[in-house]
Amino acid sequence: MRILSIETSCDETAISIVEATGEFPTATYAVLGNSLFSQVDIHREYGGVFPAVAKREHAKTLTPMLERALTEAKLLERSTIMLSEEVRSELNTILYREPGLGEALTTFLEQHNTPAIDLIAVTSGPGLEPALWVGLNFAKALSYAWNIPLVPTNHMEGHVLSSIFTETRLPAIQFPALALLISGGHTELVLMRDWSQYEKIGETRDDAVGEAFDKVARMMGLPYPGGPEIGAAAKRAREKDLSRFVTLPRPMINTHTYEFSFSGLKTAVRYAIEGKELSQDDIEAVSREFEDAVTEVLLAKTRRAIDEYGVRTIIVGGGVSASTHIRASFMEYFGREYPDVAVFFPPRHLSTDNSVMIALAGHARVRDARRYSELSNLKADGNLSLA
């Protein structure tokens, strides 16, 4: 089965072609084509993702990314096809919210044959709804034009699966498993008793951990995205063994729930630095303390869940999982204290939003695939929950 997957939940426009041989979860996979356009440089001037700009950039970039992925997969054949007025009209209706995308896709379809694709998978949530709608409508248009079934996927399930993906397969993990999903929009602990069975046992009450990194970085004059900037500054502080500029709280670390809260931690940083002229050493020391605080909270909540639920596998996914310090801390601590528990992190190129993970999630939900005539009720949901 060849899967064309589309991801537009935030500020990455990504399309992949993934070939799955066998049934989920024992299939083998081959990534035939993979294209991604990151909007990070565009949003940097705003200090974060600006939804209207993200929507516009997705509409501009989807068709070129489609062409690139199909070309890499050697599935693109040039041709001259005249679409009927009926088809043109339906495509324009599907894509009426995205100015320019309908025209670009129509031109592409008239210049190329239908590729040998068996399934289209697309992120339907969670994420920024204006961005989600662009990818979802694009996928619906392709489903209509090519008569290929479409399956909506949950972005967070994609992160779970890509975190254990070995580039060719999903390993036979032991259950129960615990997924810690940490990104700019999410901080949640999800219990898995089997494949595709999810129970959310805790989440953030306010800021997501990645959002807190971005806001603290902005306070100290560091550029967006804040996670890599704070990580680099914290690393320098450890190398210099800088003394603490401030001692920050570890919010909710001793509570007996699995909820998180990072708004107060962010506020504590603001109070500590407000009105002060920070030196480079000061910035690095604050970054180290902030990163340490976040890491200790994540470790404590994960450890408590392991003990309560008898967890055999830890899966850490989402953009913040790329943090060198969080990775090293988890591997060292759980390798020492829980040697029988397997710990998985995604390869760095799959830690941030990508479309390979959407192909995996689509394959997991292939039984939910529908033809275009059955998609009238399919909607983007910015708050879609995994469980």
Features:
387 residues; alpha/beta; Nucleotidyltransferase, domain 5; 2 domains; five-stranded mixed beta sheet; 12 helices; 10 strands; 42% helix
Describe this structure in words.
By secondary structure, the chain is an alpha/beta fold. It folds into two domains: 182 residues, ATPase, nucleotide binding domain (Nucleotidyltransferase, domain 5), CATH 3.30.420.40; 175 residues, Nucleotidyltransferase, domain 5. Helices cover 42% and strands 18% of the residues. It contains twelve helices and ten strands. Strands 3-2-1-4-5 form a five-stranded mixed sheet, with helices on both faces. Strands 8-7-6-9-10 form a five-stranded mixed sheet, with helices on both faces. Strand 4, helix 5 and strand 5 form a beta-alpha-beta unit. The two termini are 27 Å apart. The model has no long low-confidence stretch (mean pLDDT 96).
The CATH homologous superfamily of the largest domain: ATPase, nucleotide binding domain
Radius of gyration: 22 Å
Describe the strand arrangement of the main beta sheet, using strand numbers: 3-2-1-4-5
The whole-number mean of residue pLDDT values reads 96
CATH class of the largest domain: Alpha Beta
How many strands appear in the DSSP assignment?
10
In percent, how much strand structure appears in the residues? Answer: 15-25%
Q: How many independent structural domains?
A: 2
CATH architecture of the largest domain: 2-Layer Sandwich
Q: Percent of residues in helical segments?
A: 40-55%
**Count of helical regions:** 12
Structural class estimated from helices and strands: alpha/beta
What is the element string, with H for helices and E for strands? Answer: EEEHHHHEHEHEEEHHHHEHEH
Shape: globular
- Distance linking N and C termini: 27 Å
Main pleated sheet: 5 strands, mixed
Residue ranges: pLDDT <50 for 5 or more in a row?
none
CATH topology term of the largest domain: Nucleotidyltransferase, domain 5
